[in-house]
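Posting here for the record, re: zinc ion.
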Amino acid sequence: MVNTVSMSEMSKDDYQRRVVDQGGVVLLPVGAVEQHGYHLPLGTDWLLSDYMAREAAVRLNGVVAPPIMYASRSQIRTGGGPHQCGTVSLDGQTLIGLVKEVIKELARHGAQKIAVIDSHFENRFFLDESCYQAIRELKLAGIDNVKIVKMQFAEGLTDETRAKAYEGIPFAGRHLEHGGFYETALMLHAYPHLVTMASIPEEDLPQFPPYDVFPEQPDWVPESGNLSSGKLATAARGKLMMDEMLEALVDALRQEFPDISP
Ligand SMILES: [Zn+2]
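Prediction output follows.
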């Protein structure tokens, strides 16, 4: 038996014991492969989801399924847009089907507690649809004992902690946080070796109109692809936010799956 929370590193009997015999929660991290400026890696979103899922799984004796790295399209006004080099997105229907099928496969082998952990704003409604369809199709197949908790972990951050973390730093609004202070601080805490702070340029905040245009307008977005600045981010501020979001995630899963082993 290997001491790990990662499904990929477990043998089939380790996995079966944790998930089927002990009724453990299976956490499915979802993110994106998306540019995050010059200073953050393309995998920022899925790396953060995976980090949160692993930390939560340690506390809950859960199992982390291999992450869904590719995901929904980057939007100009929330992610810098699909034209950016290195951004690789799926069509919405592909993402819906992919996540639905993974959930159904987990359930087919006896997982009853499933948590979808998301960090990429644009995934939101597609993942809702995956969960609706998975539950519906499982019921039709006679499996009606599955419950899914879906959380964008950023929702666990309270205004109070956000204010503390952003003390002395302008908050542009959640929709402009792409590659900005929030993600930079979290990455400095979780993956400091992947962040190059010196690469953050001086740029003005984008001024978006209250609508979208297709095909997208690349000149709406600052050259870096960041929608606000991460220059003042620190690992300590990232830890402050991440600790609270992690606690909220763990609390949510304990609340919804009360018989989870301690
Ligand atoms: Zn991101």
